[in-house]
Amino acid sequence: MEFQEPASCSNLEEPINKFISAFQTGDYVVLGLVLAISACIGLFFAFKDRKKSNEVYTMGGGEVSPYPIALSLATTFFSSITILGTPIEFYRFGTMFFYFSITYLICCILAAEFFGPMYKKFNLTSMYEYLELRYNRFVRLVATAEFIVQTVFYVGVVIYTPALALEAVSGLNVWAGVWLTGGVCIFYTALGGLKAVVWTDSFQIVCMFGGLFAIIGKGFSSNGGYDLMISEWREGGRNVWDDFSFDPRVRHTFWSIVIGGVLGNWGNSFCTSQAFVQRMLATKDIKDMRKAIYTCWVFATGMQCVVALFTGIVVYSYFKCCDPEKAGFVENKDSLLPYLTVEIFKDYPGVAGLYVAGAFSGTLSTASSGINSMSTCIVTDFLQPVLKLKERTWMILSKFIALAIGLCCIAFAYIAANLGGVLQAAMSINSMLGGPTTALFVLSFFNPWVGPATAVISYLAGIGMAVWVFVGSKIYPPRPEFSKQMHLEVSGCNLTNYEPCEPDSSGVYPDVPWCDAPMDSERPGIASLYEVSYMWLGTIGFFTTVIIGCLLSLIPRLRPKRLKEGVLHPFVEKRYRGAQYIPKCENQQEKHEKTEKI
Fold first, then answer.
1. CATH code linked to domain 22-420
2. Is 456 exposed, middle or buried, given 0-12, 13-18 or 19+ CB atoms closer than 10 A?
3. Beta carbons of 263 and 93 less than 8 angstroms apart
4. Which residues, listed in sequence order, are joined to residue 493 by a DSSP beta bridge?
5. Which residues does the chain have with pLDDT short of 70?
6. What pLDDT is recorded for position 215?
7. CB under 8 Å to 459, separation ≥6 — which residues?
């Protein structure tokens, strides 16, 4: 659909100036209360469970209700990136992002029906314990190390995000915001463990929804109502549902979102991420686990798709004639929504604070989940097999490890500042590292001929391929025609030093925010590979891992000689007769010996 300039832009009585509103006292009070309540929840569980075991600290004792788990799952994976990034995704690229609701449903089904029961039957603390049962300890440690690297990077991006929001509305230095967010998160995560994380998530999701609902309510009541705003949305070319292109270079198509999302980013997040699996295993049984996962899908679709879409429509209704980033009013697109919020709620002290508190809540949720799961993996996968300590000592050590990991995540936030938009940066990291992880577990469940060497080689090859394409995309960015960004208007802006976006006699375009110069047409042939949509990064890694794994499994010397009973998916195990299984009683004896060592 071609862009049509909204009629209202040509009828403006006066040009739109840069907003000058900022945080008020009431906004700071609301934000402070949210951070204080989050910290107090950590203190409560630290005191309540102070005499209990490390298993209660890391896994909640396996007795957490499915509904707080569902809220925690939803909050963890949609975070501040949803609050700041997803509505702007709809505003800038249209409605194709809504197809992620299908991706989430498929991933939830896979988690509830295939992956979850496999983890649950072994009563694991770390999901990577399964890889030692299936292969050996080395494979387990390789996968755990990759998870820690991936999560530290991801949490670094997430911590950086709300600091941008706070800087845009208050003038507080972005790095002061990073340390504020990280400090509160480390405090309650290290003190309270998994229970503190889960119950804080349940509180924080209310703040996240509250801030977005306030923006939607204000926008639809002030800008002509639902019918007019939807009409303008369509006139602006945003109502796009029919991009079914098979071109892998197109940023978002139905296929890249559904297939690329399942095999890459979200398949990993829902099925093979310690942060998700740890919560699944904190439920009492498989029935409660499935209840938590499917309830999570309702909240995930509601927040990431429905609420974010309507927020994006509100953003367009305000910025349809003057995009603040293109006009140079804000430094980056991740500040657009905070910039708008403080202006429309300048007469309602505390409401803008609620929105920014929602962004902080999302960050605290995701970061705390990541820190808690990394701490659990380091203790369970690296330390417990080689150290013999008392239960009380393990709990204290887990808290110090959580503190150290949190500081590392804050350090990586400095790298996140150079990765571009927070939504795409976060999803790129998860895709390129998560796709091969999902493939490793798929091979482990469904291919009985994959041995330890095959698993490691194919896994590292998948990661290497995905990282190579990602780095190449930073050197040779995709051409604008593949991103399919919607037209951003500046005709209604008050641009005092306006220069037309036209080249001079030397072919040089003016260096101004509203002018996008054409990219160099002379690009090497391999640059076409680097133009592949970020949504396919995980799929590239997934299929590289699966294909190499299947090919190497044809070599008899690389096949496993024996398999422990139960390590294959039941569907495969019933039909596979080539393995010499270790008897079940021997499995139980091995588990008993492991428990005695701990």
1. 1.20.1730.10
2. middle
3. no
4. 16
5. 1-8, 10-15, 19-21, 46, 49-63, 77-81, 165, 416-427, 496-522, 577-598
6. 93
7. 142, 143, 146, 436, 437, 439, 440, 545, 549
Angstrom distances, CA of residue 490 to CA of 3, 336, 397 = 14, 15, 55
Supply the DSSP symbol for 498. Answer: -
Give tens-digit pLDDT for 138-191. 999 999 999 998 888 888 877 887 777 677 777 778 888 888 888 888 887 777
Question: Cα 297–302–303 angle (5° rounding)?
Answer: 105
Contacts of 522 (CB under 8 A, 6+ apart): none
Judged by DSSP in three states, 586 sits in helix
pTM of the model: 0.84
Strand partners, 581: 563
- DSSP labels, 415-473: HHTTSSSHHHHHHHHHHHHHHHHHHHHHHHHH-TT--HHHHHHHHHHHHHHHHHHHHHH
Q: Report the alpha-carbon angle 72-76-81, nearest 5.
A: 140
Tokens of 222: 């002030």
| Domain extents in the chain | 22-420
Question: What DSSP element (H or E) covers 13?
Answer: none
- C-alpha 393/C-alpha 33 separation (Å) is 33
530, 476 contact by CB (below 8 A): yes
Task: Give residue 461's pLDDT.
Answer: 97
How many C-beta atoms lie closer than 10 Å to residue 390's C-beta? 9
Res 218: pLDDT: 92
Nearest partner of 94 among 423, 484, 532, 426, judged by Cα: 484
Question: CA distances (Å), 318 to each of 13, 340, 379, in order?
Answer: 15, 8, 50
In angstroms, the Cα distances linking 409 to 155, 178, 253, 402, 425 are 6, 10, 32, 11, 15
